[in-house]
Protein 1
Amino acid sequence: MARSRTRDEILAAASRQFAESGYKGTSLQDIAAEVGCSKATLLYHFDGKDAILRELCAPAIAELKDLLDEVGAAPGPAAARKIAVEGFVELAMRHRREIQVIYGDLPALLLQPALRPVHQLTEQLHATLAGTSGTAQSRLSAKFVLAGLPAVIFACTEFDDATLRAALIATAGRALESL
Amino acid sequence: MARSRTRDEILAAASRQFAESGYKGTSLQDIAAEVGCSKATLLYHFDGKDAILRELCAPAIAELKDLLDEVGAAPGPAAARKIAVEGFVELAMRHRREIQVIYGDLPALLLQPALRPVHQLTEQLHATLAGTSGTAQSRLSAKFVLAGLPAVIFACTEFDDATLRAALIATAGRALESL
DNA sequence: CACAGAACTGGCCGATCGGTCAGGTTCTGA
DNA sequence: TCAGAACCTGACCGATCGGCCAGTTCTGTG
């Protein structure tokens, strides 16, 4: 995979800047400046700005897909919801920046080719959290949780991971417990 | 105030496009095209792109300030929190698009001159929701609610306002009730 | 040492960005 | 009737965007 040191540094700088300034708000020149190389070097290692975003988000998107497979194999709706919440918290914490980039710039960023699969995956996750009842209240709580989790995970760097994980699962659980 | 019909149409188009595509993702040309006028006309009516954003968000920001004054005059922490949640839901619903623009693009958009006051106001709101205990859990829940509310309000156009308002207050209340 | 291929760069491209300006048109009140 | 205000526009500006390419430097191998 990671074939060159410069290539990794480009991904790292892009991750940081995309999360901080947004995809549109970050130029190739900005990334190149942080890496300490020329803009042409970025385009030597990647097929374009979109390709950088795609490769950056690929692991997170793949894990999101795995999570949904796991959710699909759950014995019942309650178990599915539990897996979805805890799994998403875990996933979002492992990929803080990417999740921030993806979920922080919706819906504008969803039009980006690199994030094509995300929309469907998010819809599935939403459906799981909302449960089978399909009431307005349940769908709304699900959206609430899906929006709140990434925002908090990115914003809260002050807590250690264990504390953050436990608190998020508790808060999300309370928000969803109307069902 | 609104001195011309074209001026209002510019604000309406800008509001819609900023919310849909983000501030950076919307060009003056895009707005002009929707209005059906030239780009120069936008800059005749406004001092620049930033001025459009400023005027667009001014009412929402003013109401946010009023809300915080009201919160400050509450008899106790519990009452303050109740006023904050219900007031913010009401405010965010009345200014769906603007709230989406402001809260949907953080933190990149906060650097925009037009949104200078927003950061401090948001901090105050956060402090109110978190309460005086200052525990990690309470601060985290507060951020969770502040991120979730705007996202849901913008995303959920399927429910009537009364349903939405009631459900949001209930969900936010549950998320916060660890205190 | 020679050489192939990977890594990297400066310079350039067309497009588009926000913004300016001179000038034309339309509205309005004395 | 007519001057001035209000309104609107096409043409243009410098800056910056993502992307491209020819050419140079680095590096590992026979």
Protein 2
Amino acid sequence: MVRISAAAKDAVRQRLLEAAAAQFAHQGFDATNIDDIAVAAGVAKGTIYNYFESKEDLFGGVLAEGALRTVHRYSSLPHGTSTRSALRALAAADVTVLQEEEAFMKVLVAEAMTPRSRNYSLILERLAPFLDAVAGILEAGVRRGEVRRDRPVPQLALLFTGTLALLYIQHWQSDGGWPTMDEIPDLAVDTFLDGGRARGPQPRRRTRR
Amino acid sequence: MVRISAAAKDAVRQRLLEAAAAQFAHQGFDATNIDDIAVAAGVAKGTIYNYFESKEDLFGGVLAEGALRTVHRYSSLPHGTSTRSALRALAAADVTVLQEEEAFMKVLVAEAMTPRSRNYSLILERLAPFLDAVAGILEAGVRRGEVRRDRPVPQLALLFTGTLALLYIQHWQSDGGWPTMDEIPDLAVDTFLDGGRARGPQPRRRTRR
Amino acid sequence: MVRISAAAKDAVRQRLLEAAAAQFAHQGFDATNIDDIAVAAGVAKGTIYNYFESKEDLFGGVLAEGALRTVHRYSSLPHGTSTRSALRALAAADVTVLQEEEAFMKVLVAEAMTPRSRNYSLILERLAPFLDAVAGILEAGVRRGEVRRDRPVPQLALLFTGTLALLYIQHWQSDGGWPTMDEIPDLAVDTFLDGGRARGPQPRRRTRR
Amino acid sequence: MVRISAAAKDAVRQRLLEAAAAQFAHQGFDATNIDDIAVAAGVAKGTIYNYFESKEDLFGGVLAEGALRTVHRYSSLPHGTSTRSALRALAAADVTVLQEEEAFMKVLVAEAMTPRSRNYSLILERLAPFLDAVAGILEAGVRRGEVRRDRPVPQLALLFTGTLALLYIQHWQSDGGWPTMDEIPDLAVDTFLDGGRARGPQPRRRTRR
DNA sequence: AATGAATGAGTCTTCATTCAT
DNA sequence: GATGAATGAAGACTCATTCAT
């Protein structure tokens, strides 16, 4: 009996989080109102307050849930044979999650990109597993001589993650134009690893600082 | 006939834009209220509506003004002798503007990085001069063989600009930690041009796609 | 499920309509403010918006309710044996309603007599039962040869109704002077049916058109 | 010099009254705003306050001007040979004025028909010349035996005037449908004098009270 | 636990009026 | 006298939160 009601409670909570994520992703925090979430989740407005202390708390719950859902994926990633293939696998996993949990991910990305987020520490905390995965790959790359060693790995990890986010935002802003979700993993890895410089016989290597 | 000089009117308008930019930068659009802006600008609430149709219009005005102030700087940039130095000069100019007009720039960057901005087209339009400047530099780079030709220049320009924005946000989020404003230009150019790969004798060229 | 009974909700709605009618009747639409209505109805301001979409909607509700309350009376009217007595009975019923629902009726009449009412179609629609009742009486009168047949019955019905309204307004404007409410039914019928011409032996029948 | 400026002042005053009348007629007192009137009159907003103490005062000015313009016409009316023709001439004159000064007249009629007008005494005062003209005609009619003597002439005058107003309102509300302005004089006189009863051999004269 | 009506502080916006020029 | 920018009180409406049922 307790089990059932606990499961039922959890189901309501999940429905609330999904509904809230959809609204927050679509309209942002302020433009979203509790009524709409309640209707979308199929519960009464007051019920929300049995599960979350406030609208802000609900938003935090969405962030946390989003991070949680993402993290689950990264634990079981095949280690690539090269930095490039490992990063590509990770990015591809991220894109998959993004497509499956678009609402949660949009909220996460938006919050991460807000210059004055009260939730930044939460974001960082929840982002940590992903950053750690990236850092692990890069660390191995450094050891193999595939990744530059003149910049701290954590910073590089942050930059790679940021590049991914950048491409997501560009995808959303361009309304599905360039880049498409499918090309994002390659694009991110290519951009991050190779940069914009021409390769092969370099005309003037001296100008490099 | 207007008894207050056009200059005086313009001064009020500027005060309003500055005050609004500060508030919007600090708290975001929704959390900012018209009263605070009026007080900060030293005018009565109603006066704002002599200059802007609505809070949204005022926000648009802030965006436009921010873009305008940035653009002024780009017209008088020394053309660098290399892609690297030209980009660095441009980024440095951008950072300078950013520091001088922090409020306006924060609003611009935040809006540009919001995944569902109603103002995205405005942003793009106003960002165009900057993107064009970047594209011009990259174009020249391509001709000189310094920039890869396998990806469209406009996309590369967008990526460079995005990388800059990414670093700004990281700077703000980390509360002035890494990266500092001063190192951003080099960091952006280095990241964008060289990527994360190790240079010099490449161990395994075969893995490159 | 609604914990407050539907009856209780309806009671609040009625209180709101009564309070609103009183205010609108007393001060007109624009001079009435939502706060006053809320206070008069003994609810919080926000509660009004649980029942009506806007101040205009509330006004429309008052009109509709006023019309509704009037109409109820007309269904159970004894058919007079003559046009005169039937009209008098109808007018008397109208006066009775008017006295019992003075606020609602004042709002209705005022709106009906405003030369540029946005609610005229609503008024007409709601007034239809009354106009129909009048028209029915006049139609019977025409058949009995008591009512002139050279003018369309609907126009005559409108004129009779208008004459009634005219007398109400005159009553209100004169602050209860002439005419008193009691004499209005006879006055209206007499004015409408007999007109101002002298009766009996007509001195000059030739001047009649 | 004084003459010229006085004339000029008067011209501005007239322009203001015309503009205000147009606005008040079109939108009513509350929905009209000072700005629109100023623009329509081609003066600055502040200038209005050199001519009128307040918006209310301006409204009063419009009423007064409207009444004034109407009254001028009634002084030079040809006395008809019969009550009917005299009333018809008066009504025709009124319709003419109404058409020429539609804005002013609409404001006057609307105000007269408002059940709680603060300006009712002004209306009555300004309406007096018209009512007196009607009363004069009816008085003569009574003496000639053309008008019933069982009801006070002032009340009859008020009823005739009210009937006219009723038809105007009906004309405006029906958006120029029935009745047309042209048929109003006959309609008013016919309605007022003859009433709705059938003429000629009356079937049951006994039912008359 | 669930419900949804009630609440009222908070917000944007309007606009008649003032007054320095 | 004319101007129109500035003013700020007032008002409609929103919505997160509470709480009786």
